[in-house]
From TrEMBL:
Residues 43-115 form the Ubiquitin-like domain. PROSITE patterns: BAG, UBIQUITIN_2. It comes from the Eukaryota. This is BAG family molecular chaperone regulator 4. The keyword Heme does not apply. One of its GO terms (molecular function) is protein-folding chaperone binding. GO terms for cellular component: cytoplasm. PANTHER family: BAG FAMILY MOLECULAR CHAPERONE REGULATOR 1, BCL2-ASSOCIATED ATHANOGENE. Gene3D superfamilies: BAG domain, Phosphatidylinositol 3-kinase Catalytic Subunit, Chain A, domain 1. Keywords: Chaperone.
Length: 263
């Protein structure tokens, strides 16, 4: 063979790629995969009303294709089902062994378990959102009530006498908001919000109780005033006398002497 002809033949059979690798020249426009040593398949995958086109080596597995589909569809590989000619394909099976050719078409479907899980997650998100909205409404009402609590606090601290009914009404209104919070079914973020709001309302109720005591005895010892207030509440219920005890020293001396005589 003429060396010159041999050189021409070699130039036709081999070509230098940009990366510096010498490979066999492509003929008739066929795509060739250098890594796996096989042709590249153009695959069309139908998913719902959409189509996705991929070009990948014929020795690729359906598991490899699912990874590419996950990027395009957002559907995780384990939630995918790939069908070719009406049969679901296994992840480990290769394209060419399954009988695929260039321009073959596949059908992608989502696993039923995945759909159910997504529906449950969506339902849970909606429930949390609904609970957060309900808690926000309660919070708005509590904010309005706190303005009244703050006004009472200013009056009591400056020595202004406040009608006892004001404390009772505000306390009852705050308790209504506590009942609303208790009726809200909450999970996750909503549960934390509800707990925080319950603590806030309880704090305002405690503050009102303290202000009520101070308002009843503005100049007395607050430690002993609590006991006196409790006794008067007992009297109001119909037990005992409505007349407060005398503060004279003689009235306390005589009962003490009588008790000693009984002993």
């Amino acid at each position: 063979m003429n060396p010159e002809n041999e050189s021409i033949e070699n130039q036709q059979e081999w070509e230098m790629r940009p990366c510096g690798m010498l490979v066999q020249r492509r003929e008739n426009g066929d795509d060739f995969d250098d890594v796996n040593g096989g042709p590249l398949y153009k695959i069309k995958v139908s998913y719902g009303s959409n189509f996705h086109d991929f070009v990948l080596p014929c020795k690729s597995t359906f598991g490899d294709l699912k990874k590419l589909l996950a990027r395009e569809t957002g559907l995780e590989p384990e939630d995918q089902r790939l069908f070719f000619r009406g049969r679901e394909k296994d992840d480990s099976e290769t394209l060419h062994m399954a009988g695929l050719k260039d321009h073959s078409k596949l059908l992608l479907m989502e696993r039923p378990a995945s759909k159910e899980r997504k529906m449950e997650e969506e339902s849970k998100k909606n429930e949390i959102l609904k609970a957060c909205q309900a808690i926000a409404q309660v919070k708005t009402e509590v904010d309005k009530l706190f303005q009244k609590v703050s006004s009472l606090q200013t009056s009591v601290n400056t020595g202004t006498r406040v009608n006892e009914k004001e404390f009772i009404i505000l306390t009852e209104l705050l308790m209504v908001q506590l009942l609303k919070l208790d009726s809200i079914e909450a999970e996750g973020e909503a549960k934390a919000l509800r707990k925080s709001e319950v603590r806030r309302v309880q704090g305002y109720v405690d503050l009102l109780d303290s202000l009520k005591t101070k308002n009843a005895n503005p100049f007395g010892d607050h430690g002993s005033t609590v006991a006196v207030t409790t006794n008067w509440e007992t009297f109001d219920s119909g037990v005992g006398s409505l007349t407060p005890p005398s503060s004279s020293s003689s009235s306390f001396t005589k009962p003490t002497q009588d008790w000693e005589r009984f002993e």
